[in-house]
Every structure is written in C-alpha cells, then in structure tokens.
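fyi for ur records
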Amino acid sequence: MERNMLTIGELATKTEVTIRTLRYYDKIGLLSPRHYKEGGHRLYQEEDVMRLQQIQSLKLIGFSLKEIKNLLDKSSVEQETLHIAIDSKLAHLKEERDSIEKTISALYHIKTVTSNHQNIDLRLFCFVLYSLLWDEREKHSKSELSIQNFTEEERTKLDQQYFTLYTELKYLAEEDISPSSSQARHLYSNMQDLVKRTIIGDKFSSTSLVIPNEIFNPFTEKELRFLKSLTKHQKDQS
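which gave:
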C-alpha cells in the first residue's frame, strides 16, 4: 500500500508547500492524509495531491481556507462565485502592479537625480525617495502652490538641480559660511531662479523635493536657520 504513497516531506517537495502548512491543513481538516505509518507519520496518496492542487488554485484567487473547505465539499460551483473571486484578485494584482511600476520609476528617477554626487546626504536622499513614493500626491493636493507641467525628462533635470542646490545649502550651513558671502548669494540666486522656472506662486518650493516649512523636510534645524538667515539677508539687501 505504501509503495504509491507520499510522505509529508515528499508531498511538500512535490507541491512546493511547506510541511508546516500541510500539518496545519491536517489540523483544521482541510487536507488529512489517508493513511499513517507506525509512529504517526502521515502518508498521502494521489487523491490527496489532487485535493492540495485544488486548495492551491482556490487560494490563489483569494478564497479563505474556510471558504475553500466549503467549496471542496461540492462537486461544482456557480460561475458567479468564481468570477467574483477572480475579479477581486485581478483588481488587487493590478494595484500591486501599479505600485511596483511606480516604485521602479521612482528608483530610476532618484538614481539619475543623485548620479552626479559622490557623497550623498542621507536625509536628503530619504526625503526625495519618500516624496516620490508616498507623499507626493498628498503634498501636491494640499499645497497652495501650482507646479508647472513638465515632461519626465524636464522634471528629472530640474530635480537634479534642486538636489545639487540643497546639497550645497547643507554644505554651507555645516561649514558655517556667512549668509552674506558670495557663495551664499550665488546659491540664493540659483535657488530663486529655479523656483521661478518651476513654481507658480510666491513661496519657496520645488517640483518634487521640499517645502521647507513642512514638518517633514530634508533639512536639519541648523540648515533651516541658515536658509532663513540667507533669505532675510537677501531681502534686506534688495
């Protein structure tokens, strides 16, 4: 009798289901072995393999184990029952696909944006990636600013420029460079020029990187103080 039977380990290997899962299926009565060896070792036969394949198929389209158990007690199932499950699974997979595609796009984007920097500020890097993946839609919907429309290529170039300017701002702040220095004035001029080319409004921002007054931003307190001092100095000079 045991010649054509499978041990639990053999069944797990054959179907790519873990032994732990098979033991759980046995425990809840979803898939119990037809026979046991001495010592309580489970033995499965061909009908058990077929039932496990049915379980895997129904689980794939989203049925719970309890629902699968009820379905397998029947010889047939209404088309609508299966089609509803399939449609739900398709919708879920499409959402996952869209999320994956968005993540891939964001990773390519940030790789290009940071490609000219040998050493990258981690806070700035994480802020950009977070903005691209999670915060961008919400931030734009709440912002009082209006961002001009750009092609993907144009936006990538602009974000590269913003990243470079923010990196320079961090450097000047860390080195305690005076806001009245030529370096600081040059930085401010470039920032203002870039803002004018990207933002419709009168507040400092960027296409996708930062609005410094937000709670979550890429700047430390020291860097924000430098930015405020720089802005104040330039206004006083104008």
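Residues 79-113 form the longest helix (35 residues). thats all i got for now
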